Amino acid sequence: MSEVRSNVRGAEAPVRELRYQRVYDLVLRLIEENGLRPGDKLPSTAELTKLADVSVISVRRALDELDHDGVIERHQGVGTFVAEPKLVSEPGRSGALLGTISDDARTVAFETRLVGLSVGMPGLNHVRALNIQEGQPVWEISRVRLRGGRLTVAERATIPLSLVPAIDEEQLADGSSLYELLAQRYGIVEAYAEQVFQVDRPSQWEREQLELSPTDVVMRVRGVSYTEDDVAFDSYQQTYRADEYVFYVQGRRSDSQLVRPGAGGSWAVRSLGSAQPPAAAAAE
């Protein structure tokens, strides 16, 4: 078996630095060391070219990567700005949907709209998920969530009438939490959930609810919520705009070991001996 040995003396081995990574790291340090906030303007392409001593091509690639990673926003003819942070969704956390979404910087305010409330006959997948008999009626509750007037989450809940004979439509239309209503009226409390995550193109229903195009990308969460007694009471689907969220699932530890769930920036491993342009010079 061949053995690979590390050479910790970076100067003894030739190092090929990726020039676009130099620009990427420079922008991250500019944001951090100068305390830049979402909406603050960043240096232009020409300025970054001089600061990092690289070509325009390297700067453009770095900006493409930063844009893709949600660090910056570019507006044609206006400039490059620090982007709004992505929201952190913790779908594994029990409770109401909005209680699983957070933003490290600010309190997240959502508007809830009730799209539909009806009684119907569940398909076979819902029958199996909820462990009910075929032909047993269910509630189907459809809602969307808006942040700053922008549609950002669409969800459907499917709940057996045998467990929940009545639902107050007016309270749901006013934005009340479905799970809080179930707890208050029927003593139904979520203890845990089974979930499946899927990155996909949006379905027609999802496109209509979130005003998406067929080429957009969504994160779809399908799940089943259970009580402490292992009774399945909700077979649900949640659809998120994939470009606005990061998803965080935690194991047994009670404290986060991943820096912060929404931590941005580069997770690259830099080659030994590669240089870093000083951010202080960029701030002048």
Automatic annotation (TrEMBL):
Record-level GO BP terms: negative regulation of DNA-templated transcription
GO molecular function, one term: DNA binding
Keywords of this entry: DNA-binding, Transcription, Transcription regulation
Domain HTH gntR-type as annotated: residue spans: 17-85
Pfam families linked to this entry: GntR, UTRA
Protein name as it appears in the record: GntR family transcriptional regulator
Organism: Leucobacter luti
